[in-house]
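Entry: Amino acid ABC transporter membrane protein 1, PAAT family
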Amino acid sequence: MTVFEMFGFGSEGWGSVLLLGAWMTLVLTLAALVIGALFGGVVAAMKLSRLRTLRVLGDAYTTVFRGVPELLVIYLFYFGGSSLVTTVGQSFGADGFVGVPPFAVGAVAVGMISGAYQAEVYRAAVLAVSRGELEAARAIGMPSLTMARRILIPQVLRFALPGLGNVWQLSLKDSALVSVTGLAELLRATQVAAGSTHQYFLFFVAGGVIYLLITGMSNRVFGRAEARVGRSFKRNFARN
């Protein structure tokens, strides 16, 4: 079988398997980024809180999920979650092992890891917002929700975009670890193709190239987003 046939989209080719794996990687990473944004926003608010208890809890979250190896977190969520579901199922009369969905577990695990990094990005972005603008808004009696919508959130997103691009790349690489659960993402698809054809070097190089292509496209998307947000702020500044 030639190289073109192995990477083709016919009955004996692995092209469609690799593309589906790449699509699964993108969907998993996007889901993890959204979940991480929810956790990261809450944890960032906790770390900025005046209450010491909330700050300690926020610091504990970021310390644990940035300090524990990502693979160990995925193992704990997948096998620990499966054990918990099995125990609950057996209490209701179910027999045998009950597994948890690999995609859901992978998205939550990678998302919570991502949330630890996003929390620091959001916290730094909030601290970068000019205190004078917020004080001026309070001085004229602007409601808190209006101040957040018109001043705080737009500037936080502007300052956070570069950091979120880095977090996306981290989550993209962490998604490869979810292959240990059997989810058919890009790394798992590459492993299956390499094992079936015994062309390990060829398919692993192909998998690496696909990851680099995804990374390159992601960099362009975030770069354009940063440029667009920067232009909008310049226009608003010129109007004022």
